[in-house]
Specification:
By secondary structure, this protein is an alpha/beta fold. Helices cover 42% and strands 13% of the residues. A 3-stranded parallel sheet has the order 8-1-9, covered by helices on one side. Strand 5, helix 10 and strand 6 form a beta-alpha-beta unit. The radius of gyration is 20 Å and the shape is globular. It binds iron/sulfur cluster. The site of iron/sulfur cluster (SF4) has 12 residues, from loops.
Length: 372
């Protein structure tokens, strides 16, 4: 049966996708304007299956947030707190190391470490934290510190971004997460996160990290006050940097969660908008290998559907998620490995456990090995 395209504006884009041609800014805007989400999903699925066949990746990871104390006051944030706030916390180094190993029987392959911009913790504290983790968990990949945290540590410690990254790498950082990118558009950034580095600075930190051999992820926060044009501009700026460095492994579209933030009047995103963002990012980011449907943010059920709308990754076990749960996420704080296998299989995909660099992981009862 031939594909029935409801929105005729998508027909030229469908032809480009079939021919493997790069999509333009105008194509991206059309993709954000259409409500023909089935044709959109069909196109994204074609690209996704071309790249990854029937496989959906997941990993066994643990999130660690060493502190929620933050000098910035981004309106989009429900996580960061001032040092004087009685609810604020900062772990000691021993607490970070103890949290990393606490109460989890399945061997994790990755620690995902992000936190607030602490006024007093300097670069050396983070290097010590990383060295301690590497010493205790030598097989675990350390994906630590967003571009925003790196820039803050450089400022706080009065050294360059390059030196900051080199010292963190020497101390044990293996790659960087993709958070803090939000939306690069200055007009939007001034309203939602005016204390953060700007979009150009975020990209420059990523460029420097990639140059010294630290791969990273990248993200986009949608569903607040941005327009479709702002989203496409953001995606194209990521695509441009990827053409230059090839350092992004995965793109993660992140839905804005407004609860407990100064922007709580903004309605939450819908499932329609969530799968649309997965699909558009798969189509526009033709040079970024993986698109992740982050189950914590979009719920396991939408993350499952997203595996048919361009995503090839569902994230990991997580264990203890604070950032989205402070902003009202009602999802569980962790999923077991078996839950992830079930979600992926039910969506008709073949689950493959990966390490952070997408190498397959083979498990026995008590240990794991990475196929290189
Ligand atoms: S989003 Fe990040 S930088 Fe901004 S207030 Fe929250 S923790 Fe701090």
């Amino acid at each position: 049966m031939p594909l029935i395209v409801d929105d005729r504006r998508l027909e030229p884009i469908l032809r480009k996708v079939g021919a493997g041609e790069r999509l333009t800014f105008e194509d991206g805007v059309t993709l954000y304007r259409t409500s023909d989400v089935l044709t959109l999903g069909y196109m994204a699925n074609v690209v996704r299956e071309r790249l990854h066949g029937n496989v959906t990746y997941f990993n066994v990871n643990r999130h660690i947030n060493p502190t929620d104390v933050c000098v910035a006051s981004c309106r989009l944030c429900a996580f960061g707190k001032k040092a004087r706030d009685p609810k604020a916390y900062t772990m000691s180094l021993e607490q970070v190391w103890e949290t990393a190993g606490r109460g989890w029987t399945e061997a994790v392959t990755e620690f995902h470490i992000v936190g607030g911009l602490h006024p007093e913790l300097g670069l050396e504290w983070y290097c010590e934290m990383l060295r301690g983790l590497k010493q205790r968990f030598p097989k675990v990949h350390l994906k630590a510190l967003t571009m925003v945290e790196i820039a803050w540590l450089a400022t706080r410690s009065k050294v360059t971004v390059l030196e900051t990254l080199e010292r963190l790498k020497k101390a044990g950082v293996d790659s960087l997460p993709g958070g803090g990118a939000e939306i690069f558009c200055d007009r939007v950034r001034r309203i939602i996160c005016d204390h953060k580095i700007d979009g150009g600075q975020w990209l420059e930190v990523a460029r420097t990290a990639h140059r010294i051999g630290l791969p990273s992820n990248c993200t986009m926060l949608y569903g607040h006050i941005e327009t479709g044009e702002d989203r496409v501009d953001h995606l194209l700026r990521l695509r441009e940097l990827q053409d230059e460095t090839g350092g992004f492994a995965t793109f993660i579209p992140l839905a804005f969660h407004p609860d407990n933030t100064p922007l709580r009047h903004i309605p939450k995103t819908t499932g329609f908008e969530d799968v649309r963002n997965v699909a558009v990012s798969r189509l526009m980011l033709d040079n970024i290998p993986h698109i992740k449907a982050y189950w914590v943010m979009m719920t396991p059920r939408i993350a499952q559907v997203a595996q048919r709308f361009g995503a090839d990754d569902i994230d990991g076990t997580v264990v203890e998620e604070k950032i989205y749960h402070d902003a009202g996420a009602r999802t569980s704080q962790s999923l077991r490995r078996g839950d992830l296998l079930r979600l992926i299989r039910q969506s008709g995909r073949e689950p493959v456990e990966r390490d952070t660099l997408y190498r397959p992981v083979v498990r026995s009862e008590t240990t794991f090995s990475v196929l290189v």
